[in-house]
Design a protein that fits this description.
Arc Repressor Mutant, subunit A, two-stranded antiparallel sheet, D-Maltodextrin-Binding Protein, domain 2, about 20% strand, about 325 residues, 12 strands, single chain, 2 domains
Length: about 325
């Protein structure tokens, strides 16, 4: 006697027992009545017991058949429930996304409405956190991260560049121009009179930016330092000082006039700054592929708008590779801007 009856035989048995006959069972299974009868006969041989009393076209369970039907009906009901659950989960797409805080607030957040309109049945979970994901310990599908792109062992793709320049409120720029006198157009004089606002977790800070664009040091200016770009931008919009900030985050404020370039005579520093990152295995998931395709399209559209805006202002753009984070070893993973 075989101790391992086939799953197919168990399925045929459970269906016949549930319907009380071969014909309806055959219709449900999509096979012939003879095929069902053969499977039942084989199963009885494998188990060494009789499972049905056969009375004309009716099949009535024996005591052994009753015991087996109780177990198989529970098992196959669980399988059917699991199959339905998987089907519903397939229809309801779920994406767990992590993102750098300021990028999530200023850039990604306002654009997500378009994605949700295109994919209304998706479950989208977004965490804005300063530190990169630990994919071995955390359940995260994808991380959109600000930094240097140095995440060994992970899939990393640059999706968006920063265009960095000094920004302030229109009123503060006028105040500086009046303090400088003359025509108020000397950018070095403007910087020397300015209160500088620093985003301490940014890839480019004042000392590094001045050096990379070939501007002289600005001396002992008063500094304000914040660990979030959005705080630096809020203070700059309120006329407190000049922030060295990214057009990626400040684009809407530049378009509205809430922030203005300190001087168009100062060049703009451009370098890769925002990245898709995560385990390579996640890139094969359909939900990740769909979101990444949408994100690349949004980034390309933003890059085109930024280039047009810089041309409108008449800026000279200085291309640079992604800078090392100032004040930290090269291999330290950057926190979010």
């Amino acid at each position: 006697m075989s101790r391992d009856p086939t799953l197919n035989g168990m399925l045929y048995f459970e269906t016949v027992a549930r319907h009380g006959g071969v014909s309806k069972a055959a219709d449900e299974l999509g096979v012939s009545g003879s095929a069902v009868s053969q499977q039942i006969k084989l199963l009885e041989q494998q188990l060494g017991v009789r499972l049905f009393f056969r009375e004309k076209r009716q099949f009535r369970l024996t005591a052994d058949g009753e015991r087996l039907f109780h177990s198989t009906s529970v098992a196959f009901r669980m399988i059917r429930d699991a199959r339905h659950l998987v089907a519903r989960q397939r229809e309801r797409r779920q994406l767990i996304l992590r993102v750098s805080p300021s990028f999530g607030m200023f850039w990604l957040g306002p654009r997500l409405a378009r994605f949700i309109q295109q994919h209304p049945s998706w479950d989208l979970h977004v965490d804005a956190t300063p530190d990169p994901s630990d994919f071995e310990r955390e359940v995260v599908d994808l991380d959109v991260r600000y930094g240097t792109g140095d995440w060994p062992g992970l899939y990393v793709e640059a999706i968006l560049s920063d265009h960095v320049l000094p920004l302030c409120s229109p009123a503060y720029r006028t105040q500086l121009q009046e303090a400088v006198g003359s025509d108020g157009e000397d950018p070095t004089a403007l910087l020397c009179h300015a209160r500088l606002i620093d985003s301490v977790k940014a890839l480019t800070r004042w000392d590094g930016w001045l050096k990379q664009v070939g501007a002289p040091p600005v001396g002992d200016n008063a500094h304000l330092r914040f660990d979030r770009s959005w705080m630096a931008m809020q203070l700059a919009k309120r006329g407190v000082g000049v922030t060295l900030e990214s057009v990626t985050l400040a684009y809407d404020d530049l378009m509205s006039g809430a922030l203005v370039p300190l001087s168009t005579a100062l060049p703009v520093l451009r370098y890769p700054a925002y990245w898709i990152m995560g385990p390579s295995r996640n890139q094969s998931r359909r939900v990740v592929q769909v979101f990444c395709t949408w994100l690349r399209e949004e980034c390309a559209h933003h890059e085109a708008g930024t280039r047009a805006l810089m041309e409108q202002f008449g800026f000279r753009i200085v291309e640079r590779p992604t800078p090392e984070r100032q004040g930290a070893p090269a291999l330290v993973r950057p926190s979010g801007s």
